[in-house]
Amino acid sequence: MKSELENSQLDSAARIAHLRDAVRYHQYRYYVLDDPAISDKEFDALFEELQTLEAAHPALRTADSPTVRVGGIVSDKFEKVRHPSSMLSLANAFGAEDLYAWRERVKRFLPPLLQGDLAYVVEPKFDGLTVVLHYEQGRFVLGATRGDGEVGENITPNLRTVRVLPLVIPVDAAAGPAPAQLVVRGEAYVEKVDFERFNERQLEQGERTYANPRNFAAGSLRQLDSGISAGRPLRLWVYQLLSVDGGTETPETHAGGLAYLHRLGLPVCPDLRRFADSEFDDLAAYVEEFGRRRHDLPYEVDGVVIKVDSLAQQELLGFTGKDPRWALAYKFPSEEAVTKLLDIVINVGRTGAVTPNAVLEPVAVGGVIVKSATLHNEDYVRELDIRIGDQVVIKRAGEVIPKVLRPLVELRDGTEQVWAMPAVCPVCGAPLVRPPGEAATYCINSACPEQLVRAVEYFVSRGAMDIEGFGIKQAEAFVQCGYIHDLADVYHLPWDEILGQEGYGAKRVENLRAGVEASKRRPVHRLLTALGIRYVGSVVAETLAQHYASLFDLMDATPEQLSEIRGIGPKIAENVAEWFSIEQNRNLIQKFADAGVQVAEVRSERLPNDR
């Protein structure tokens, strides 16, 4: 016969289960359907009762309970998560001409017989943090950042604190039972009013504020303490069904997939429209109209995304480089501002290219304080007659990189100074040279410290060798100390000398050394990308690595042989062959190999060099 205590436990377990289902249901009604069935006071009473019961019976508390959203300490760093498929970026469009050109490309790649049902979905391009969410048997089990598109960071504990994200798919969801496995892509964001209130409170308390909602979302979810994330007013939209296994439906269209996710109880933005191909003029008009009213939305957007609706057609269209042919990001015009140009300084890049940059009186543009902006090259400054002391119009090109558009000549008072490109490098004093027919000017000293610093910064960056804990500060310090004379010296650092220097205790040196060692196992195409050869980015590097088993094989390839590879044009081929023809660079590859860096990959067969 059961004891009174056992009966009490059973009663409490049943009540807790009932309360959890009730809380989840009402959160679904409130956050997803925007149709609450009870008042806030009634919901609070249910939630508080659940909290009280779980506190009295801690053994009955589960990881997917609605009450776990308060958060707690996670870990000292984030675990890396490989995505089930690539989280691709999108090609950009900035006007109606780009939009129609994209449509023509789509139709060119689709067989005529399959164009009859061609349709598109237009949805907001949210300004937040991209996340990938995994559910198993209806329970949220993993959440990660987009990262580099292939590997992201595990931020599951922090995402659990986002109240709009269902930890368990409601049992009475309109789509029926939850699938065995479900992976979706979404965007964590903050509404404008919540963002403003948060910053106001931070100012009152003398704490850090955020420049824009995107930084807020990223900063809130990349916390080592999920308790901090729990205190942030984050929300979420789910905008792509990546995979589903065991569900009651198999959507054939993007719009159908979103409707299915909404019926499952996931938050799907209602601001989307579907257009047939015959309605493309209406689509273009809608995009322009949406841009005009975007400031009235409760959340920030920086454009819209247009996608081919049919998933089968998406599969046929495939992608080019890293961009899917079936989708396009239409960027709205950037916000502009006027400020004073205080000075023009020269930056030396990793290839030796010197770029004039504007030093500006700080000004807010699109929610970001801008203090400097690019001036591109000498011709740009001369043709626009930009002078030091001018009032200039600036904008954030593509909502990211500040750019000087033009001077306000009518506001000049005669004190402005004409600028000219200096004759020598401001860093090393070597002559600056502008090759015939090129707009760029170069420092011809390959040993220029600034070039080496920028080259090392690029080499260790996430898109290249991805050495954790190694950034611009380490690049500057190690070059200045004479530890690094070429890129391969990254693998010959004097760790005993570094240990004990200011800021480099035993733990930090141990972590940095581990990051350097781990990078030796990166695939060959990552090393090829990291070398900084002109025109060789990640896509070109992967293509070359598919056709040459090692960098030693690649270094002997002629421009003619390289040009035979699909995707490798004459200019790329010439630059690659020229780079490997230099004895210093060939020795560098050997130095990498001697250090244990992976310069060759074993594969069963090579791809043919067919175009």
Structural features, described:
The chain has 611 residues and is an alpha+beta fold. It has five domains: 4-61, Orthogonal Bundle (Helix Hairpins), CATH 1.10.287; 92-331, DNA ligase/mRNA capping enzyme (D-amino Acid Aminotransferase, Chain A, domain 1), CATH 3.30.470.30; 336-433, OB fold (Dihydrolipoamide Acetyltransferase, E2P) (Beta Barrel), CATH 2.40.50.140; 449-519, DNA polymerase, domain 1; 524-594, Orthogonal Bundle (DNA polymerase, domain 1), CATH 1.10.150.20. 36% of the residues lie in helices and 21% in strands. The chain has 21 helices and 22 strands. The strands form six sheets. Strands 14, 15, 16, 18, 19, 21 and 22 form a seven-stranded antiparallel sheet that branches. A hairpin with a 3-residue loop joins β18 (391-397) and β19. The longest helix has 29 residues, at 4-32. The radius of gyration is 28 Å and the shape is globular. It starts with a helix and ends in a 17-residue tail after the last helix. The model is unreliable at 70-76 and 603-611 (pLDDT under 50).
